[in-house]
Amino acid sequence: MSAYSALTAAGYRAQVRDKTTVFFTFAFPLIFLVVFGLVFRGRSVEESGFSYLSYTAAGVLSWGVANAAVFSIGFTLMQWRSDDILRMIRLSPAPLTAVIGSRYVLALGVGLVQSVLFVGVAMLPGFDLVPDSRWPLLIPVLLLGITTFLLLGVIIGSVADTPESVAGIANFLMLPMAFLSGSFFPLDAMPDWLQKVSMVLPLRYLNDGVSAALTGRGDLSDIGWGALGLVAFAVVFGAVAARTFRWTKSS
């Protein structure tokens, strides 16, 4: 427990001191919300009748939370391995669960702050997002989403050995996934074949769950389907992460 607390406190201090990380974690997704909100203000998607904001607010929130989880653990594991911190932790009584668990708690805290800030801005005059009555279901969906993408970040942080490679791999996965999963543009307005391709992407399930819970687009089955999809990907990513994790550059 002492190792877990020390790692969590150290991770928190490192995160809040890095102004660049704070900006891209909290401000960057809000920029997307403001841009899309102004561009598509008052417009709706013909195929569904829902406003563009109901799509983009939920989608950008999902992408922001997932992005933060991937990058935070990916960069941390790479840097700690490069600085031999992981090797020293391995030689100490601290278990691997303390390392991953400390980052998990931080990711949950970041996701909570992101969600509150994001939804608060989306409810301001000019954006006028009205959360659906089942918005509390957003909490378990985001919890599953953070878990899934944190495990994806563990894989990236385990195979990458430089900051450039972490950023390259993460962006290669997350940016196309955002477009193909409907984070930035409604899937309802995309071709059928592209909607089918999105079914093999974990962000699609997070988008669907968040959208159904936050804006009421869809029903409870959409939330359940999104949650099941995230659980399935979490199991797969967890198994791969367990096999790829490295304490040092060589092992």
TrEMBL record:
Question: Per the database record, which ranges form the ABC transmembrane type-2 domain?
Answer: 20-248
Q: Name one Pfam family in it.
A: ABC2_membrane
Membrane topology term reads:
Multi-pass membrane protein
Q: Which family does it belong to?
A: Belongs to the ABC-2 integral membrane protein family.
Record's superkingdom? Bacteria
On whether Lyase is a keyword of this UniProt record, the answer is no
Main localization (coarse)? membrane
Q: InterPro entries annotated for this entry?
A: ABC2_TM (IPR013525), ABC2_TM_bact-type (IPR047817), ABC_2_transport (IPR000412), Nod_factor_ABC_transporter (IPR051784)
Q: Which residues cross the membrane?
A: 21-40, 60-80, 101-125, 137-159, 166-185, 223-242
Per UniProt, the keywords (alphabetical) are:
Antibiotic resistance, Cell membrane, Membrane, Transmembrane, Transmembrane helix, Transport
Subcellular localization, as worded in the UniProt entry: Cell membrane; Membrane
Protein name, as recorded = Transport permease protein
